Amino acid sequence: MSGTLVTWLKRGADTVGVLFFLATFAGLILQVFYRYVLNSPVAWSEEYTMIAYMWTVFWAAAFMVRERDHVSFDIVYDVASPRGRRLLAAGSLTVLVVAFLILIPPTWDYLEFLTRRKTSVLRIPRVWVFGVFMLFLVAFTAQSGWRLRGLLGRRWHDYI
User: Fold this and answer.
1) CB of 107 within 8 A of CB of 31?
2) For residue 125, what are the β-bridge partners?
3) Residue 119, exposed/middle/buried by CB under 10 A (0-12, 13-18, 19+)?
4) pLDDT of residue 159
5) What is the pTM of this model?
6) Rounded CA gap, 147 and 63, in Å?
7) Helix and strand counts by DSSP (H, E) for the chain
8) Per-residue pLDDT for 80 more than 80?
9) If pLDDT is split at 50, 70 and 90, which confidence band does 150 have?
10) Confidence category of residue 158, pLDDT binned at 50, 70, 90
11) 112 to each of 44, 72, 93, 121, how far by Cα in Å?
12) What is the DSSP string of 137-157?
């Protein structure tokens, strides 16, 4: 993929992530204001904030946080040789890609079930609320598959 296109896609994903975070923060501030200043809590703000937070977290995990910045247990990885690191990374990525691929069909089935359900206050179809998880699964699986492809190729040093 062209470097310029990747840069624009990354900036776009970052912008969307920031907007999700601002939406979450605005909902939280609104909720606090209505509850503690006006002493008149509104029911929709809690549901809105929860949905915005969920989208923020899964969007960031899928598109904004670099692979090396995700939580990992790398005690063994750090003391391994470059070849050992390659094998450990390729093995863990293989398990991750297979596990996420296995998760996609049941997640899709559950989202199909949710097409008939709506949130209790805002009446938003739940498929739109929880659909971000499918987006996360597909995006993270694709990124991990791309990294695995790189680890198995000639320029594998770039992926460690």
Assistant:
1) no
2) 118
3) middle
4) 59
5) 0.82
6) 14
7) 5, 0
8) yes
9) confident
10) low
11) 25, 32, 28, 21
12) HHHHHHHHHHHHHHHHSTTGG
